[in-house]
Amino acid sequence: MPEQRIDLPQGTLDLLILRTLALGPEHGWAISERIHQVSDKVLQVQQGSLYPALHRLERRGWIKAKWGASDNNRRAKFYELTKTGRKQLETEESEWKKLAAAVAQVLETA
Amino acid sequence: MLSDVLIRLRALFQRDKVENELDDELRFHFERQVEKLVQSGLPIAEARRRARLEFGASDQIKEECREARGTHLLDTLAQDVRYALRTLRKSPGFTIVAVLTLALGIGANTAIFSVVQGVLLAPLPYSEPERLVFVWQNNLTLKHIISDSYPDFLDWQRNARSFRQMTAFDWQDRDLTSPGTPEHINGKLISSGFFGTLGVEPILGRDLSPQEDKPGGAPVVIISNRLWRDRFAGSTGALGKSVTLDGVAYTIIGVLPPKFRFFGDEADVYTPLAQGDPLIYSDRTIHPVICIARLEPSVTLANLTRRWPRPRITWISSIPPQIGDWERTSNPSSRKSLGT
Question: What are the chain A neighbours of B7 within 8 Å (beta carbons)?
Fold first, then answer.
């Protein structure tokens, strides 16, 4: 296991959220939908983990929130990446790739 | 981090708004989910039911969001306080008793501490009080008496070499008849250099001089700050004016600083000890005066007791502690007795 701090469930969800927002601001529902679609319906993010994660990321300053109009003209809370968030995304992405590669290697040879 | 602090502050001070926003956010998600299910062919009632199931317990989600925001502890504290207040309101009798008990406790504590502060902790208004000592004759039968006869005091004053200054006083209440309305006031008889020994500077005028402190000497008085303000309007012209005490006019030669107190009372007039009643003050068997001395800088109490021989008379001794008011004074004057 690498020495960097990577919490598996919580950290992975954070990473996915940040990656989704890298493409542009979204509200919570759209984020979960996007992850669901892009992962070929494998990953279904529950509201129970999504919203606490969003609030946590907002508190950490990696995303910021703004109320706006959604595509069906209703009021929704949109999140977007901040500059520190973008940097954090890069860090976590590279860590994840390293982790995945390492785990794959162990599974192959062991 | 700044965003962290701001978010927490906002959560604290705009609780309702933040809560409503959270509600709106979750409801929006719910509605979109329902829409999605309806679009995939479900009847609306079924869609809502399914969405609600998927949603899970919204209260729990809200709770986790609050926790994520980090104000959880304070929120629960606030809730508990509100609950406590509600409960107290329901049983007013109990509340009243509790409040009264607390008030009594706090009041008593404050009172005690104020006394301690004034008596023990506040500094004595003299300079270097640790160099001041009581001097008295050790009375073998009445061990607790620390007062002396005036002639003894005079002898000691003449012979003392370990003391830089020695002075004595006695209490004397007076009837002040002028200026102003007659009043019965506290006074003291003091020997010359009394205030100098204590290390107190009069704010006007001067201390008593040896020339005045003689039988038949000029009747002079040093007055307290309070008397000065009450009867002479705090004016510098008070020096040289006179006050009439027990029918005799005394000329004012000095005014003391405010807040000066000595031996538990704030005497208003200090007149020469030598001019006191000769029946009392020339009798060696009567012990009305208390003698205070300031040690020479090089002298310690230990070598002092060695220097003065102790056949029958102990010049400086310690009072047994069971007397209560007075602490062992083989040490310099106890704060308690000197300052109260």
Answer: 58-59
In a domain, B104, yes or no: no
The per-residue pLDDT for B289 is 87
Q: Which residues in chain A have Cβ-Cβ distances shorter than 8 Å to B1?
A: 60-61
Exposure string of B181-190, with b = 16+ CB inside 10 Å and e = fewer, is eeeebebbbb
What whole-number percentage of chain A has pLDDT above 70?
Answer: 90
B134 plus B82 within the same structural domain: no
Question: Looking at the structure, do residues B296 and B152 belong to the same domain, yes or no?
Answer: yes
CA distances from B287 to B153, B296, B329 (A): 10, 26, 19
Domain that holds residue B61: 2-90
| Secondary structure (3-state) at B188 | strand
Task: Tell if the pTM clears 0.80, that is, is over it.
Answer: no
In a domain, B158, yes or no: yes
For chain B, residues with pLDDT lower than 70 are 1, 56, 69-73, 118-125, 129-130, 137-145, 160-162, 263-265, 299-340
Q: Which of B65, B90, B115 is the last residue of a domain?
A: B90
Q: To the nearest whole angstrom, how far is the Cα of A1 from the nearest Cα of chain B?
A: 27
Residue B144 inside a domain? The answer is: yes
**CB within 8 Å: B68 and A64:** no
Whether residues B200 and B72 share a domain: the answer is no
Question: Domain spans of chain A?
Answer: 8-109
Residue B20, domain member (yes or no): yes
- Whether residue A60 lies within 8 A of chain B, CB to CB, comes out as yes
Return the pLDDT at A41: 74
Which residues, 6 or more positions from A107, have their beta carbon under 8 angstroms from its beta carbon? Answer: none
Asked which of B68, B90, B112 is the last residue of a domain, the reply is: B90
What's the number of domains chain B is made of?
A: 2
Please identify, in words, the CATH class of the domain defined by A8-109: mainly alpha
**Chain A partners of B56 at a C-beta cutoff of 8 Å?**
46-48
Torsions phi, psi for B114 (to 5 deg): -60, -40
**Does residue A6 surpass a pLDDT of 80?**
no
Task: List all residues 6 or more positions away from B298 whose beta carbon is below 8 Å from its beta carbon.
Answer: none
Banded pLDDT at A8 (limits 50, 70, 90):
very low
pLDDT of A4 higher than 50: no
